């Protein structure tokens, strides 16, 4: 009797804690009550009567209201139509049964196969476009991971890395799908064959709100249920689910990826931990030696396997623990073919000297940009390795994100985030699209590019010189925020290194600094010069190549500045904007393109000038510019590597790649 009472009290206490935290299993009923057959009751039932049909015809998400009653229904993106209908109707029945006369209810459907598949929310106030993190329902797995045979430190590191990948995928606003926030990841851990994870948010909230909701769910699970073999947390604005078994539908077409290589170090540590165990009895020596020997063999096997992986990846380093950068996936070529519809010409979104860029859609629904390098190109090999190596260790809001790569056979493919508004040159040099670029928008683009370069030069764990900054390598996201792209020609510096002399010139003629073209001297000031050219292009709305007859845009802008006519180069679209502020930006641009390298500012100083109209800015000196390559580079070697055409040099597309080790 005492034991029964204790169990009852314990259960009641747990239920009380869940209620206080706004968390329960399956459904939550809160708020005031309403009378049976009242207008609220009738209006709620009226909305319920068509809810399952409405949610499927509206892409899996539906919000409706009727005289003070608000109902919202949501189905997971990969759910089939009939399954969504059945799930919503089941949730409605649960609410009518368990929350029959309560105004505020939330039901998240659960079953053994698919713990988070749909939910229904009712309130007496609108929740549309308002992020709601509570009430929440939870459904942890009843099974626990056997911690006596599993290295939980290693498991947690791999699990956290998986969370980062799923979170990044789920918080990308695809803008084309109703259920736009979604990420499903399947990974192979060191001590588990497969681990599955899914995240999704309702489409009415922002990406930042989605990320916060999912992060809170992950944190809650780790704090309350760590050690379980999976579980689901469902909130009115997001759902989070993971398991050691595939739950229905979400992972039918998701390619498995390996766990991060950093797991090798903790595994070695786990071996040492096992060696320290003391076992009583006469078999102590055997119990100590045999596991040690087995672990040694396993460890040697892991080292060999890891070496084979590195060799097959053309020595591309996929480090996670040391880099502190983005998670990296190695994509299966078959998945790339599906995502791009066999590289359909309809999906082509860009052409470059080393290949084409295609829009792709991954099985989870996420849109990506797929860069396919030309087969058999030695230059492409160098660009491919360079770009993958660098971008895995860089992460900044003004740099394009690298999702992964594929190098099977002679195929070399890089997968980036999809940036819907293409590149800056498609806007700033187009007579109609340029009308959309207000001064505030151009200001934000200039500042964003400057922040991206500052990160590369000073704030990242590496010191990187981009060497090919130009308008076509500045991508614009859905909110017109800039992202620097194309790191195939970037040069890696030591942290204490300020400049170097290269064997060959790489970049695009017109954006390359004079000292770099003439003497092959490269430094952070090389990028500063390129930034100055892009800044002047943004202000004038004209491409630098349009001014080549008069020695280029920097020289032309300098000529107008000296004559006191700098205002004449301002884009006519900006006629109603503040001329004073735009003139200050021209001033900064001219300081960036000065012939004298020592007088050019750092990107840190540029950002200070951009942000303040009270800081005293020095007067610029003569601008430098080069319209042709040095004579020694005008040979067969240079011509064959030019990107503007077969055997000819191009004013705006020249790309000569340096072949020396970086």
UniProtKB/TrEMBL annotation:
It holds the Pfam family Stress-antifung. Residues 343-616 form the Protein kinase domain. InterPro entries: GNK2, GNK2_sf, Kinase-like_dom_sf, Prot_kinase_dom, Protein_kinase_ATP_BS, Ser-Thr/Tyr_kinase_cat_dom, Ser/Thr_kinase_AS. It is a single-pass membrane protein. ATP binds at residue 371. Keywords: ATP-binding, Glycoprotein, Kinase, Membrane, Nucleotide-binding, Receptor, Repeat, Serine/threonine-protein kinase, Signal, Transferase, Transmembrane, Transmembrane helix. CDD domains: Gnk2-like, STKc_IRAK. PROSITE patterns: GNK2, PROTEIN_KINASE_ATP, PROTEIN_KINASE_DOM, PROTEIN_KINASE_ST. It is found in: Membrane. The chain crosses the membrane at residues 281-303. Residues 22-127, 140-247 form the Gnk2-homologous domain. Residues 1-25 form the signal peptide. Gene3D superfamilies: Gnk2 domain, C-X8-C-X2-C motif (3.30.430.20), Phosphorylase Kinase, domain 1 (3.30.200.20), Transferase(Phosphotransferase) domain 1 (1.10.510.10). This is Cysteine-rich receptor-like protein kinase 38 isoform X1. It comes from Camelina sativa. The gene is LOC104737297.
């Amino acid at each position: 009797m005492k034991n029964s009472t204790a169990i009852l009290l314990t259960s009641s206490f747990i239920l009380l804690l869940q209620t206080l935290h706004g968390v329960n299993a399956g459904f939550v009923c809160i708020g005031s009550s309403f009378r049976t057959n009242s207008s609220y009751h009738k209006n709620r039932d009226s909305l319920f009567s068509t809810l399952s049909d409405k949610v499927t015809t509206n892409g899996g998400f539906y919000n409706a209201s009727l005289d003070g009653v608000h109902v919202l229904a949501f189905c997971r993106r990969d759910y089939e139509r009939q399954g969504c209908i059945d799930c919503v109707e089941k949730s409605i029945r649960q609410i009518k049964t368990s929350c029959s006369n309560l105004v505020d209810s939330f039901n998240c459907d659960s079953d053994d196969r698919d713990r988070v598949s749909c939910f229904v929310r009712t309130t007496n106030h609108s929740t549309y476009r308002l992020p709601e993190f509570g009430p929440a329902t939870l459904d942890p797995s009843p099974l626990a991971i056997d911690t006596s045979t599993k290295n939980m430190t290693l498991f947690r590191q791999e699990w956290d890395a998986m969370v980062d990948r799923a979170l990044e995928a789920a918080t990308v606003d695809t803008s084309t799908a109703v259920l736009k926030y979604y990420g499903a990841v399947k990974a192979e851990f060191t001590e588990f064959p497969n681990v599955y994870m899914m995240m999704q948010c309702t489409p009415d909230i922002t990406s930042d709100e989605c990320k916060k909701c999912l992060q809170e769910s992950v944190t809650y699970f780790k704090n309350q249920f760590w050690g379980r073999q999976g579980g689901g947390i469902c909130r009115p604005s997001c759902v989070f689910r993971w398991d050691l078994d595939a739950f229905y539908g979400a992972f039918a077409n998701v390619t498995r990826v390996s766990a991060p290589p950093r797991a090798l170090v903790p595994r070695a540590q786990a071996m040492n931990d096992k060696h320290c165990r003391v076992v009583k009895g006469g078999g102590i020596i055997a119990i100590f030696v045999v596991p040690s020997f087995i672990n040694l063999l396993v460890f040697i096997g892991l080292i060999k396997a890891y070496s084979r992986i590195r060799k097959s990846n053309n020595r591309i380093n996929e480090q996670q623990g040391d880099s502190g950068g983005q998670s990296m996936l190695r994509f299966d070529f078959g998945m790339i073919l599906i995502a791009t519809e066999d590289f359909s010409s309809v999906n082509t979104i860009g052409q470059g000297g080393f290949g084409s860029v295609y829009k792709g859609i991954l099985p989870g629904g996420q849109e990506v940009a797929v860069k396919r390098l030309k087969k058999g190109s030695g230059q492409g090999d160098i660009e491919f390795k360079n770009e993958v190596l660098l971008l895995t260790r860089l992460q900044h809001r003004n740099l394009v994100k690298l999702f992964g790569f594929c190098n099977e056979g002679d195929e070399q493919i890089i997968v980036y985030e999809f940036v819907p508004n293409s590149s800056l040159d498609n806007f700033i040099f187009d007579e109609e699209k340029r009308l959309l670029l207000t001064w505030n928008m151009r200001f934000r683009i200039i500042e964003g590019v400057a922040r991206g370069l500052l990160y590369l030069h000073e704030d990242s764990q590496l010191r990187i010189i981009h060497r090919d900054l130009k308008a076509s390598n500045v991508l614009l996201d859905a909110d017109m925020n800039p992202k620097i792209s194309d790191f195939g020609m970037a040069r890696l510096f030591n942290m204490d290194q300020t400049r170097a002399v290269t064997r060959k010139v790489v970049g695009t003629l017109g954006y390359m600094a004079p000292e770099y073209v003439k003497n092959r001297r490269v430094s952070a000031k090389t990028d500063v010069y390129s930034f100055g050219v892009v800044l002047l292009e943004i202000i004038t709305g004209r491409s630098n190549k349009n001014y080549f007859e008069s020695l280029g845009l920097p020289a032309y802008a300098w000529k107008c500045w000296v004559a006191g006519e700098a205002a004449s180069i301002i884009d006519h679209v900006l006629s109603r904007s503040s001329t004073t502020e735009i003139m200050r930006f021209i001033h900064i641009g001219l300081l960036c393109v000065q012939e004298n390298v020592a007088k050019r500012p750092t990107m840190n100083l540029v950002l200070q000038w951009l942000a303040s109209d009270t800081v005293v800015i020095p007067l610029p000196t003569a601008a430098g510019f080069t319209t042709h390559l040095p004579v020694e580079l005008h040979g067969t070697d240079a011509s064959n590597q030019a990107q503007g055409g077969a055997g000819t040099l191009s004013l705006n597309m020249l790309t000569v790649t340096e072949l020396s080790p970086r």
